[in-house]
Amino acid sequence: MATAQACVKRVAGGGLAMALLIGLAACGGPPNWVQKGSGAFNEKDNKAFYGVGSVVGVRNEPLAWDTAENRGRAEIAKTFETYTGYLMRDYAASTTAGDFTRNTEEQNVERAIKTITTVTLSGVRPIDRYKDEKTNTYYVLTKLNLEDMKNNLEQAKELNKDVRDFVRKNADKMFDRLEKEEDKRMNR
After folding, report:
1. Entry pTM
2. d(CA 174, CA 186)
3. Strand, helix or coil at 120?
4. 180 vs 175: CA distance, rounded Å
5. Residue 183 and residue 175: Cα distance in Å, rounded?
6. What's the start-to-end Cα distance of the chain, in Å?
7. Distance between alpha carbon 128 and the CA centroid of its chain, in Å?
8. Element at 54 (helix H, strand E)
9. How far is residue 182's CA from residue 188's CA, in Å, rounded to a whole number?
10. Which helix (H) or strand (E) holds 17?
11. Which H or E element spans position 115?
């Protein structure tokens, strides 16, 4: 009787362990933002731009996190401004010499795409990170709140006006300095 109870305990314990493993596997995996990707989202009256950056195969963990974060920032930047240049070259030739039953054909197709994004964004912050242990992939979620972006744009406009006023006020002084420096060089 004791062996029957021990056998039942082992089977029940093994079944419980298996159920826990399956449950944990179902709960695990990457967060939703990894699957969702980058973009502009409106969640609970909070409009924001999100960027998901990732890197795989980097063994230096701090470098991997920094790289994924910078790639997340670049994903947000691509939302605002991206220049894409596209070039495709296609060459085909058929050559026949003398006898029209013998010919040589050749072809070459090339494609080049260059994408450039240059934009200054203030206020982009990392808000979450995740490491996929199976693939050694690092993910970082970055966020630029729409209200923060509006405030930064207003500050940039004011700063530009201030810089413009400074240059106007000091233009004569700058030109005088430049002329003095040129005179010094000429007199050598």
Report:
1. 0.57
2. 19
3. coil
4. 9
5. 12
6. 112
7. 14
8. strand 46-56
9. 10
10. helix 2-27
11. strand 103-116
Backbone angles phi, psi at 87, to 5 degrees: -135, 130
Residues 6 or more apart whose Cβ sits within 8 Å of residue 61: 138
For the chain, how many residues are written?
Answer: 188
pLDDT tens digits for the chain (188 residues)? 555 555 445 544 444 444 443 443 445 789 999 999 888 777 776 788 899 999 999 999 999 999 999 999 999 888 877 888 888 999 999 888 877 788 889 999 999 988 888 877 788 999 999 999 999 999 999 998 887 777 766 766 665 666 666 656 665 665 566 567 667 766 76
Identify the bridge partners of residue 104 per DSSP, sorted by sequence position: 95
What backbone phi and psi angles, to 5 degrees, belong to 112? -135, 135
Distance CA 84, CA 52 (A): 21
Q: Are 78 and 70 in contact (CB under 8 A)?
A: no
Dihedral angle at the C-alpha atoms of 54, 57, 63, 69, nearest 10 degrees?
Answer: 0
CA distance 149 to 46: 13
